Amino acid sequence: MADFGIIRTMRYTKSGQTLNQVSAFGILSCSALCSALPTYAQPQISPYAIIQPTDAVEGNDFGLSPVVHDGKLYVGAGGVQNAGNAGTGGVYVFDVQTLAQEKYIHATTSPPNLPPERFGQSIAVQDGKLLVGSREDDPVSTVKAGAAYLFEYPSGNQIARYTQTNGGDNWPSPSFGEGVALIGDVAVVSDPNGAWTPTGGGNKGTVNFYDISSGQQVESLNARYAPSGHFSFGEVLAVWNNQLIVAYDTGNSIHFYDPETHELLYEIAQPGYPVPSHLVFFGTDLAVFGDTLVVSEAAYFYEEYFPSAVHIFDLNTRELIRTITITPDRGDRAFGRRIAANDKYLITKLYKPGFSGGAMALVYDTATGEQLGELLPLTDDLHNGFVYDGIAIDGDTAFIGNSAIAELPNPGGAILVYDLSQLGATCIADTNGDGVLSPADFSAWVAAFNAMAPECDQNGDGACSPADFSAWVANFNAGC
Predict the structure, then answer these.
(1) Which residues pair with 348 in a beta bridge?
(2) Do 26 and 60 lie in a common domain?
(3) Higher pLDDT, residue 56 or 38
(4) 297 in Cβ contact with 336 (< 8 Å)
(5) Does 146 share its domain with 262?
(6) Beta strands 319-324 and 292-297: pairing type?
(7) Which of 27, 179, 230, 396 has the fewest C-beta atoms under 10 angstroms from its C-beta?
(8) Rounded to an integer, what distance in angstroms lies between the CA atom of residue 224 and that of residue 124?
């Protein structure tokens, strides 16, 4: 791991306007005293640590699919080199407290000189088992058939290799392994671009079930049950209450299945939203915590973006709790392309306005939907992977995948680590408490001074005096 030390920073942005106020001090002006920053306003924090594997190599795509389970952080690296074979892939395991690397897991195939490709694209962990998707697995060196591998953990012993029954290693299916899930004795592997039959009928995606004990495929569900025009069945998988949750990416509902009987139990439909049916993207990503489901709707269609949203549902009642959209409205920039959530925080990634400005991640209070702040990447490079790589949360710690980033001492991707508790810091110059540094705060400070209110005390000496005006200006300029 590359040790960057503590890099915690926070700032509020504020509107750059001339501040004039008549008060006990006469006419006061901040035109020469108060600095100007961008007009939008949210607390922002940078990563306090950066995780890279000990054998980091260029193009390793480390950071694809971070997963936190039982005190461990599992990170896919779909382009890491195994025995000199570039692009084969691996999974690295770290301790979430110390961030120290503990294990490296990779798969074997037959023949051994053709190891799996894009191994680490997806990860599922449960009860001493690790299931890893290998989306472009190519053991016969002629097709990209795709596969998934099951391991014992922590031994790392490979238990099984799963492929499509229809065609196996000889059937081109480059998305098999895009999503994986473990539910009891059942392993699930999705192929959102796969066909239900070897002849290609119904090329809308499949979700495939395997009995872990026997290693045999027992069912393959297809989007043939979905309305015409909806594709990418199985783009995202999740688990709740021993039920399999399947998202379409281009569907208008989330499906819940019994993993043993493969029966469709029920659906949660997309909330009413003014988007044409062929542009529905309800289910771009999923997050589950407790009895809560978070579904993103990051609409994108032929290089054109549409209004996006993140929806929060109660899984017991299947009722919509709330819908979050970005404010001010910049939802046409893939808001919700990747999400993660727990009972305190909801994180979503998106592009900055204008595409050329790179990407950012926004943090919300899960209980209220209030935006808490922003997580800053290390660079504004639009193509650094910050939008498309996964997110994981452990308590107050966020792990953000960044699989293609150049501003590091070691080559390859990284996991950026953020302390979300820093977003709760108070901005003392935000005198009116609206989360924005603006002329209104100057007026509020003057009112607090005239009333001898606690908000007047900007220098922390327990008194309200003219010295607090200078302190307020300094706090305003510092941006908190």
Answers:
(1) 339, 362
(2) no
(3) 56
(4) yes
(5) yes
(6) unpaired
(7) 27
(8) 26
Cα–Cα dist 273/279, whole Å: 11
Residues 269 and 339 in one domain: yes
pLDDT digits (tens, 9 = 90+) for 105-156: 988 765 555 555 778 889 999 989 999 998 877 655 566 678 899 999 999 9
Identify the helix (H) or strand (E) that includes residue 101. Answer: strand 101-105
What would the two tokens of residue 215 be?
């290693």
Same domain for 260 and 119: yes
Distances (CA, A) of 285 to 46, 106, 163, 236, 433: 24, 26, 24, 6, 33
Q: Are residues 448 and 302 in the same domain?
A: no
Q: Which residues span the domain enclosing 454?
A: 22-38+430-478
Asked if residue 458 belongs to a domain, the reply is yes
Helix, strand or coil, per DSSP, at residue 91: strand
DSSP 374: E
- Joined tokens for residue 456: 């007047």
Cβ atoms of 15 and 438 within 8 Å: the answer is yes
Residues 337 and 437 both lie in one domain: no
Tell me how far CA of residue 86 lies from CA of 59, 60, 76, 89, in angstroms.
9, 8, 15, 8
Q: Residue 265, SS3?
A: strand
468/464 Cα distance (integer angstroms): 7
User: Is 111 within the bounds of a domain?
Assistant: yes
DSSP calls for 166-226: TTGGGS--TTTTSEEEEETTEEEEEETT--SSTT-TT-S-EEEEEETTT--EEEEEEGGGS
Integer Cα distance of 17 and 9 in angstroms = 24
Cα angle 170, 59, 405; round to 5:
135
The more confident residue out of 474 and 387 is: 474
Q: Are 205 and 220 in contact (CB under 8 A)?
A: no
- Hey, CA dihedral for 386, 387, 390, 392, is it positive or negative? positive
Nearest to 102 by CA among 75, 138, 140, 141: 75
pLDDT band for position 358 (cuts 50, 70, 90): low
